[in-house]
Design a protein that fits this description.
The chain has two helices and ten strands, in the order H-E-E-E-E-E-E-E-H-E-E-E. By secondary structure, it is α+β, with helices and mostly antiparallel strands. The protein has a single domain, classed as Beta Barrel (Lipocalin). Strands 1, 2, 3, 4, 5, 6, 7, 8, 9 and 10 form a ten-stranded antiparallel beta sheet that branches. A hairpin with a 3-residue loop joins strand 5 and strand 6. The longest helix is centred in the N-terminal third of the chain and has 27 residues.
Amino acid sequence: MSKTFLAKTIRSVACSAAVLAVFCATQAQAAPVKPKKPAADAKQEEAPQPDKKFPTKASFELKTINGKPIASSLLVTFSLDESFRATGSAGCNNWSATIYPSAGQRLAVGPIALTRKACDKEAMQIEKLYTAFLHSSPLWDVDGSNMTLKLPNLVMVLQRSL
């Protein structure tokens, strides 16, 4: 992965996190809005699907970032237990955090603890991107053996592993 791509992606994640924080703050202060009455000839929308159950006791390994495969030499993993304690490898260092799957299939992530190893530049860039991404409350979806984590400008696909 190129240095420019990673730098742009990290900036994009940081911007997305800032926009999300501002949006959440304004929504918390906004007055409730009355729903509009649908027009008589308008189609009724389908009822929203209930949130999926997040797969606890499963491990996932990062495979792609925005459709581009990560280097096979990098191991980036994610696992969540039934106590909502998440652990994994961030490409260089091991990480852990409390993560709650919340309404709307978002991940609410507490502070992330990391070990303090130094690695090559690419591994450190992926680690910085991955941890910033997790901290930005991405949307999640699981389809078969793949878990997709999404922000407006960034999509990570993880595959179930042993």
